[in-house]
Design a protein that fits this description.
Elements (H helix, E strand, L loop, with lengths): L2 H10 L13 H14 L9 H8 L3 H4 L6 H7 L10 H8 L15 H12 L20 E2 L7 E5 L8 E10 L5 E8 L2 E7 L4 E6 L12 E2 L11
Parallel strand pairs: 3-7
Antiparallel strand pairs: 1-6, 2-3, 2-6, 3-4, 4-5
């Protein structure tokens, strides 16, 4: 089960999500809401078990995997994009929500990436003021335990300083508790990296999305800790 499957089914039923691209952006959310309204479901734009069941039949809620969290689904097919080698398409993507910090090859863009993914996936979500400053994400949405897909805001340099990093939590290393973070400006690209557990300032979840319940998978994996994200 993926977002292209959902978009195709919505289109087949007369609820156009726009281009079938696997990106659960604003058009897809509007199509989901229109479908939910027609079916007498809660109109929240979220493809949970009841909406899946209405789309694909009564067995889908039990037998199909719910689609990825929408903000991660937007990000996943952009893994490896580099701020220099893929500068134009990365810059174009960061501009899709209507604003951008600027050229990712010249400016720190981890907050810009998180902002773009959240804004496209959840258009009603309140974005932090000055989202390009990573530490400002400590006030985003609602506080949560470190869960899969949560926004993780980290300190850099000094816990009491102003520098930081922000990305999405996707795992935790069994040996030392380090977090696996998917985000931007990591080795100058959209990638996964390890950050020390003690650097986490806050784990936050969107206020307009149901509570995150999937725990971080424990990973047995090697890899150096990132110290100065770039």
């Amino acid at each position: 089960m993926n977002w292209r499957d959902i978009q195709r089914e919505l289109a087949k039923r007369g609820f156009s999500p726009g281009r079938i691209d696997g990106i659960p952006g604003r058009n897809t959310r509007k199509a989901v809401e229109a479908f939910q309204r027609t079916m007498g479901l809660e109109v929240d734009g979220i493809v949970g078990s009841r909406t899946l069941g209405a789309l694909f039949g009564p067995t889908s809620a039990k037998g199909r995997q719910v689609a990825d969290l929408p903000w991660l689904a937007i990000l996943n097919d952009k893994m490896g994009w580099h701020e220099v080698n893929h500068n134009k398409k990365l810059s174009d993507f960061l501009r899709l929500d209507g604003k951008t910090l600027g050229d990712p090859s010249k400016l720190p863009w981890c907050g810009d990436l998180v902002e773009t993914c959240i804004a496209l996936a959840l258009p009603d979500e309140v974005i932090p003021g000055s989202p390009y400053l990573a530490r400002n994400w400590t006030g985003f949405g609602r506080s949560t335990l470190p869960r899969f897909g949560a926004v993780g805001a980290f300190w850099r340099g000094s816990r009491d300083g102003t520098q930081g990093h922000v990305g999405f939590l996707i795992g935790q290393r069994r040996s030392d508790g380090a977090y696996r973070v998917r985000g931007g400006n990591q080795s100058n690209s959209i990638s996964d990296t390890w950050l020390a557990a003690g650097r986490l300032l806050e784990a936050r979840m969107p206020a307009t999305y149901p509570a995150l319940t999937k725990v971080l998978p424990l990973l047995d994996a090697a890899g150096a800790l990132s110290i100065n994200e770039a």
